[in-house]
């Protein structure tokens, strides 16, 4: 319904400009529509004397304030990087979301108190036909608003606008409860307005708490989705010339500022220029196709060395024999003075209950029994992102 209209605002030179443009128009639409809904419900509440309708209206006033913060958030996020903020200001969007959540909870608590007072001292409603019409109009308006937010969120992949869309859907259910409450009292005389208001207040507080949790997660940083990791893995798998890759780390400074580091295993017989050229190609592909600024660390692997290859295969068999789906990388065989040192990292799945010390004892014992008395240096990794899509 709104796709073509939103598309007009997203046709900018850069992804960042498109995001800002769509985010600002979404904030403006939300500000105007939510304020009008507040006025409609305030009028309906005053005409009927319903605390639940007034509570619902104040919820819309809170939504209008949220839209205003959304406007400020997208504008602040669009500011270019500066000396104090070398990675830009895109996390401003998350801060505005946190402030919005605080407002939602405050509104919820204020009207929970009013609803309790209405329960203690109930008053009769005066629900005229005009009141019912205003409530039905507000439900339709919220459905349209939710559709608009959903289209805008999809266009720029914004969690803030996705939350706004879900909030609009929640508001539809909230107003339906108010409508049912007014209908019940009109036809039965049961004074349940205060109870409906209390229920709405609890729903508003709950939605605010959920929104705070999401905003805090964004600010603290969360693990990328399996889909995002899978896209990165697919791109890396296209490079048949590399031996392997591991230790992927992803962090972001906003929706369009994603950075990553990874270890790339290469044949140690390659010269430095060839290695550098391959790494450059991988980093450019990540930026062009995924919008991720990647930094690669080179790990030379002695795949041409017969001793290295033979020990590698034996270690792989030993790990497989434990039947724990253990993966390993950074494998090296080094001759130090009069001894030989074997080093490697083991990726441990989440469901493995054995401690690192127990695993070290089991693996070391089998290596010394089946391969020989080598010096061992084994590290255990239980937070490898790549295991999320490889198991």
Can you characterise this structure?
This protein is elongated. It folds into two domains: 3-220, Alpha-lytic protease prodomain-like; 226-390, Alpha-Beta Plaits (2-Layer Sandwich), CATH 3.30.70.1350. The model has no long low-confidence stretch (mean pLDDT 81). Strands 1-2-3 form a three-stranded mixed sheet, covered by helices on one side. A three-stranded mixed sheet has the order 4-5-6, with helices on one face. The protein contains twelve helices and six strands. By secondary structure, the protein is an alpha/beta fold. Belongs to the cation diffusion facilitator (CDF) transporter (TC 2.A.4) family. It is found in: Membrane.
Give a nutshell description of this structure:
The protein has 391 residues and is of the alpha/beta class.
Strand elements, count: 6
Q: Write the H/E string, N to C.
A: HHHHHHHHEEHEHEEHEH
* CATH topological fold name of the largest domain: Alpha-lytic protease prodomain-like
Q: What is the global morphology?
A: elongated
Contiguous runs where pLDDT drops below 50 for at least 5 residues: none
Broad CATH class of the largest domain: Mainly Alpha
- Assigned CATH superfamily of the largest domain: Cation efflux protein transmembrane domain
Mean pLDDT: 81
Can you name the CATH architecture of the largest domain?
Answer: Up-down Bundle
**Number of self-contained structural domains:** 2
The helix tally amounts to: 12
Please estimate the helix content. 55-70%
Class by SSE composition: alpha/beta
- Estimated share of beta-strand residues: 5-15%
Q: Mind telling me the C-alpha Rg?
A: 29 Å
Distance between the termini: 41 Å
């Amino acid at each position: 319904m709104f796709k073509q209209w939103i598309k007009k605002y997203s046709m900018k030179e850069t992804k960042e400009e498109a995001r800002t443009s769509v985010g600002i128009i979404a904030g403006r639409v939300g500000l105007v529509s939510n304020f009008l809904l507040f006025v409609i419900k305030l009028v309906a509440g005053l005409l009927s004397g319903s605390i639940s309708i007034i509570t619902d209206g104040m919820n819309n006033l809170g939504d209008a304030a949220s839209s205003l913060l959304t406007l400020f958030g997208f504008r602040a996020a669009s500011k270019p990087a500066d000396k104090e903020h070398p990675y830009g200001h895109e996390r401003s969007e998350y801060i505005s979301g946190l402030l919005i959540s605080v407002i939602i909870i405050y509104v919820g608590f204020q009207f929970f108190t009013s609803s309790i007072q209405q329960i203690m001292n109930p008053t009769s409603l005066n629900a005229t036909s005009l009141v019912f019409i205003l409530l039905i109009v507000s439900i339709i308006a919220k459905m349209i608003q939710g559709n608009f937010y959903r289209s805008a969120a999809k266009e720029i992949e914004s969690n803030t606008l996705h939350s706004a869309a879900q909030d609009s859907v929640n508001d539809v259910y909230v107003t339906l409860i108010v409508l049912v409450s007014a209908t019940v009292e009109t036809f039965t005389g049961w004074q349940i307005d205060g109870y409906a208001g209390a229920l709405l207040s609890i729903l508003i507080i709950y939605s605010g708490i959920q929104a705070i949790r999401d905003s805090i997660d964004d600010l603290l940083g969360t693990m990328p989705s399996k889909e995002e990791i899978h896209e990165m893995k697919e791109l890396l798998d296209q490079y048949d010339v590399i031996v392997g890759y591991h230790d992927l780390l992803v962090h972001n400074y906003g929706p369009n500022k994603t950075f990553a580091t990874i270890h790339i295993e290469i044949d140690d017989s390659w010269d430095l220029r060839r290695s550098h050229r391959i790494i450059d190609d991988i980093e450019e592909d990540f930026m062009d196709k995924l919008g991720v600024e990647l930094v690669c660390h080179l790990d030379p692997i002695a795949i041409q060395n017969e001793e290295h290859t033979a020990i590698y295969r034996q270690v792989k068999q030993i790990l497989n024999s434990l039947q724990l789906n253990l993966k390993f990388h950074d494998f090296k065989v080094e001759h130090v003075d009069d001894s030989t040192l074997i080093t490697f990292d083991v990726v441990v799945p989440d469901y493995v209950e054995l401690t690192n010390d127990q695993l070290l004892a089991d693996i070391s014992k089998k290596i010394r029994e089946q391969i020989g008395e080598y010096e061992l240096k084994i590290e255990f990794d239980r937070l490898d992102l790549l295991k999320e899509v490889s198991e």
